[in-house]
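Late entry, evening session. Most of the bench is empty. Finally got around to the prediction I had been postponing all week. Sequence below, unchanged from the version circulated by S.P.
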Amino acid sequence: MSHHIPSVSWQQARQILHEQGLDIAHHVKTESLPLLATIGHYLADDVYSMMPVPHYSSSAMDGYAVAGAPPWRLVTPAYPEDSRANIHRLTVPIAPGEATPILTGGLIPEGTEAIVREEHSRLYEGAEASSRPGVAAHLETASSIHYLDMAEGFEPPAVGADIRHAGAELERGELLARHGDRISARMAAFLGTNGFDELPVYAPIPVRCAFTGNEVITFGVPAPGQVRDAFGGFMEHAIISAGCEARPSIRLADVESEFRTFLSTSTARVLVFTGGSSTSGVDLVRKVLNDMGATYLFESVDVRPGHPALAARLPVPETGPNSGRERFVLGLPGNPLAAYT
């Protein structure tokens, strides 16, 4: 075979693989997995919000919910003795001239016009305490605190200040993630906050690697004429990180029959060779692919290092373990830098 085989650009190679990969994607099974188990998988459907974001109006700051102009009489809910209770949901309605403590994320009490930040306020003693139902009345002692005002140098907040209104970021039914998106930990966390416990995903495409080269050793310091393995155990992780299933790999001697057996018997949808993909007389990937009637998607990529990279479609056998199954081959250079590129 000529050493001057035509090359495609890096962008063309990616486009070709993407288009050909759709043939596999159409036959990939989908499944619904628990949220944490979906990380690294690809969405099998669009995902829409089940609720507005935020889903309730809340305080954006620690401080006080206020109504009307300062000073405000301080009223507080009747806090439970159980320290594990969710006090973010405890509220008491306020009227003009009143304030009540609130935490970041706390439910906005009825009547609230704005939030006064903790650091912008000051508390001082008052003359009487509220005795309204549901409000903890303060004892009229010298140490009782009844009133809230702005700290020196700060103006009263504008109406709506530091309130996160329900639906301000997203309305219910808005698109959160697209079909085909890869689910990262951050995406899964985001979808979890929107109430999702499971997601529809594609089952990962199985990939199997064959590592070639009689000169490769798997441990120790290589002698002249030897090279240390840079693929076994490492390439599989690269495949998994791309969202695929890494089937058990195999190490092949530079023997044509071993290459042929690997291609004939492996049932993974994508088969990857490292090494043996160049055009010299001792490189066997191209010879075996030609003998088996494979169809090249491309035979070389215009990139340095790594131009001998190839992609091919294997013929679909009528019988055997791969009967009716479409499979692809990626031939990667033996140079680790080129292969990982």
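Two things to note before I forget:
The mean pLDDT is 88.
The CA atoms of residues 126 and 146 lie 5 Å apart.
Will write this up properly tomorrow.
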